[in-house]
From TrEMBL:
Top class in the EC scheme: hydrolase
Assigned EC number: 3.1.3.7
Reactions performed catalytically: 3'-phosphoadenylyl sulfate + H2O = adenosine 5'-phosphosulfate + phosphate; adenosine 2',5'-bisphosphate + H2O = AMP + phosphate; adenosine 3',5'-bisphosphate + H2O = AMP + phosphate
Protein name: 3'(2'),5'-bisphosphate nucleotidase
Native source organism of the sequence: Collybiopsis luxurians FD-317 M1
UniProt family annotation: Belongs to the inositol monophosphatase superfamily.
Amino acid sequence: MSLAFTTEKQLAISAVRRACSLTSSVFNKLVKNETLTKGDKSPVTVADYSAQAIIGSILQRAFPQDPIVGEEDAAELRSESGATIRDRIVSLTNEALVGDLGLGDIAEWGIGPGSEQTPGQILDAIDRGNYEGGRTGRMWTVDPIDGTKGFLRGEQYAVCLALLVDAEVQVGVLGCPNLPVDPSNPDGDKGCLFVAVRGQGAQQMKLSGADPTPLSMPPYAPSTFNFLESVEAAHSSHSTNDKISKLMGITRPPIRMDSQAKYACLARGDGGAYMRMPTGVGYREKIWDHAAGSLIVEESGGIVTDSRGQQLDFGLGRTLGENHGVIACIKDAHAKLLQAVQQAVADEASVQSKA
Ligand SMILES: Nc1ncnc2c1ncn2[C@@H]1O[C@H](COP(=O)(O)OS(=O)(=O)O)[C@@H](OP(=O)(O)O)[C@H]1O
Ligand SMILES: [Mg+2]
Ligand SMILES: [Mg+2]
Ligand SMILES: [Mg+2]
């Protein structure tokens, strides 16, 4: 019997790997070796668009019927003022598409020598990400660079791709070019791919696709348990996490890291929980920020819910709806953590109502 989603899994790996080689090369060319003025976002913009173009273009060839919910769209690039950046994106995307075939790559996906696309095809590939999402059928979701701030700092970021069927994530791939392959050797080799297929487990491999290793989360150990959380306090509430941490009796400080690399690190045994409590500004979490990572954690033996213990709902459109936070945790610690979360949320509400 052949396993489900074998082609989709390999295609997602190939697409994410190619997008990662693009983002790494943009970083090396534009961020590391150029003097950027503080706050200049152009390298990340070029890399975001090009990475989405690569993934959109490969999906277009392999699964032309599948819609895509992508973070970026090409509207600005189609305008007159977008001409300069558009030219850079076209050449970077083509450079990545024509790169030699690697492990598992298939030329029919529009990759390898001779696979150049026209500027029009590249803009269309980006705009394939305009799908509104929904509850039924197949759809992909892509975050070409998650953790844009981490990317610019040369720290953690992830290229994220997931396939959903009837609003359930079936395949998830995260490419983390700056993540150490061996967590116990942070200065060693960098560049990991994390891959999961529902019901088939999760694996970490090198960005080349070599050395696949199954992922499984260790059992709950209070002495080593701590939180993974956003670097940016504007993205998730550090102060709420701090309260929850005290209620849980956690003494180790949180691990702060940009992007869905947090899900990947949790899946391979770091921390114990990825905590993303809302900051209360009405922000709606996007499906591309959670689809791939949540499956990787679930398939490694973890549980992913919101702060009420409900499953994340990927069928509401481009967002997860009203923001009740995200709690991804080692299975046997989840109930205890949820209790602490609800206690902290109730305490915060009572302080606010007295103010
Ligand atoms: N206000 C607010 N609240 C919650 N989340 C937000 C908010 N603003 C942005 N974002 C999203 O956060 C994504 C970055 O992920 P992280 O927060 O995990 O990493 S980071 O530490 O902030 O870099 C980031 O993803 P990218 O845009 O792909 O980098 C955003 O989708
Ligand atoms: Mg993101
Ligand atoms: Mg992004
Ligand atoms: Mg963004």
